Amino acid sequence: MVILPKEVTIIEVGPRDGLQNEKAFIPTNVKKQFISALKTSGIQELELTSFVSPKWVPQMSDAADIVADCVDGKTRNIVLVPNRKGLERVYSTSCRAVAVFVGVSNSFNQKNINKATKDSLNELIPMIRELKEKHYFIRACISTAFYCPYEGKISEVDTLRLCREFVNAGVDELSIADTIGMAAPSEAYSLFSQLNREFNHVLLTAHFHDTRKMALANILASLQAGITRFDTSAGGLGGCPFAPGASGNAATEDVVYMLERMGISTGVDLTKLAAAIDIVRPHLSRSIDSGFYPLQKQTTESHE
Ligand code: HMG
Ligand code: MG
To answer: Considering 42, 107, 171, 193, which has the largest number of Cβ atoms within 10 A of its Cβ?
Structure first.
């Protein structure tokens, strides 16, 4: 019988992955309140925003303002950077945790960062070494680890090879992403088992998009492969603007609900998490169709 962990870590990616795909600009103050409420719900690690080109992703153009108010000494506040220019912008803030991102698939990387994967690597590896010398926390987000919207199935060998480059450069964490929500639980189990065997000295995190409603099954399969860290997004928001077919991430509330029901502690309070979603919901272009949140709303409204 597989022994499951007693607790897991939820890395909330809603303020970054969740909002980056929203076309209408969400007021910066709303984003700050959302982040604050997520922390109140018990979230200890989160992606706040990204220092990408405001021309490519206008929604993230207020990154410096977000960081100025939201970084605190109590939680791990991560920001994404795609290149040296993004890193220079981070250096002028108080943020101490940086995520770089790259796609295993060359075609996706080209669309997302306007560079071939190997050119991104050539730029990112020296940045990682520099960040390490400066004692930053470094996370590497590995996109299209299972499937690419342009190239189809990605081989485990290619994903593992790319991960090795980042681990050798000294990252603290690998976040392995099913960018377009196409992985089957058997594939999640297989890749995460191998990652766990080879890289058990770094933090290993699973990042599942829920396009085909397989994220919860993939999280369970990854748990069985020994993974205890999951990127999730409040309200199930999210998707990469440069990955056609990518829909939201695994909804934090559904993951927390499932894990807590299994006796696995997440440290997240579901009622407070719903209050965080309430803050951002009126500003979204889409409705929230996670399992837990609409049900919870119905129950509270029927008691009012
Ligand atoms: P580019 O156009 O090739 O960049 O974009 P460039 O170096 O030629 O510069 C063009 C202009 O952008 C210049 O400004 C630069 O200064 C500026 P101009 O002279 O024209 O006024 N620029 C920047 N400005 C601010 N911050 C920067 C920056 N870099 C250049 N960092 C670039 C290349 C990487 C910038 C662009 O492609 C980009 O911003 N891409 C980001 C795409 C993105 O945010 N994707 C979503 C995040 S990844 C994701 O969601 C996947 C993940 O969730 C895991 C998964 O699910 O797979 C992590
Ligand atoms: Mg993502």
So the answer is: 171
